Amino acid sequence: MKEWNRIGLRTRWVGAALSLQLVTMAVIPVASAAAFKDTKGNFAESAIDALHQQGVISGFANGTFKPNQSITRVEFFTLLNKVMGYTNADTPMFADVSSKSWFYEQVGIAVGSGYIQGEYQDGGKLSPTIPITRQEVASMLAKSLKLPLDNNAAVKLPYKDSAQVNSWRKSAVQSVVSAQLMAGMPDRTFRPAEAVSRAQVAAILKRVVDNYMGGTSAGSSGGNSSNGGGSALTYKPLNPITLNLNASAAQFLPTYVDAVLGTSVSKVAVTWPSIPTNEIGKFTYEGTLSGSTYKPKLIVFVVDPSAAGNGGNTGTPGTGTGTTSPPITINGPALSDVKISFSSLFSTIIVRSNDKVTSVMAGSDVMHYEGGNSFSLATAGLKLGQKITIKALDIQGKVIEQKDYIVQSTTNGN
Q: CB burial class (10 A; 0-12, 13-18, 19+) of residue 386?
């Protein structure tokens, strides 16, 4: 059975059959907003207005922007993810980032994009809601934009307080200053530990957009997204579908994607390219959302209905629910690696599996698909010595392997 990726070149698709947990700050168009009440005459007024029109930043319900208010770490991650168009997520390994937090996905994208690597210690605390500092912003910008870093010599910054810059961030500060993305203060200081304001971040990101993104943010579609003023707009991933060989695909494709803003869920129309079913295998396709730059992904299994064990069902049109596939024969272990990390705040479970496994359960919880045959779950309430049953399932939902693991103070491997 061949497995191909039809998004671009025909390359092997090595993922399991769960939708990627990719969450982005893509937006739905709304009418252009009026200027904020409190930004007239602000040094960053034009940058604030421009980014607002592009859907990168928003204000508060009372019509203000609060330009002098500091911005938190996760608010900055959200904005940078948006501007750079980042969507690839990885599992956050911080003791104070729960899977139930509104910012969990955005931290995951920051981890997956690599720009917070080395900034904070995995397994330690991220302190996500404290103000982000100028040197933190500089370091993350340098990594995101792949600015040249002078790591082979002692960096000498032209500021009176250069000694206060973290040694491992000096080269990044030098790079963003050279790139004219940030600058020092009139008193010839950089103030590396000072909190960054919303206006300052707007000015910095506008320079990023103008100098590196062709004048348009990667996630811009003329709409409105949220940073400190409200909840992040996210999209629910699509379930995979199964189609019979040579069947017509059109009637079974999802017709919408759920857009989630806080507690509000709305339907966004999605269109798909032509999806052939003349070849047995597992394929992935990108859809196009109405009024958004977000690209939903759909995994499609094409099976032979005459194969033993396949009932030949054709699925439920427009819901993303497809047919039942033939039983899958597993060669080798289905669960190749299980790691359980315990902490008093929350625990993480990471599982690698055989590429025929389409879902994994830890107890009664379905684990998140992370790509590359890897699944993860961040959970609270585990206890030392507790037994956790890990199950691997095929596309029919049949348990093809299960093992018990004991939660220990370190990591369990298998």
A: middle
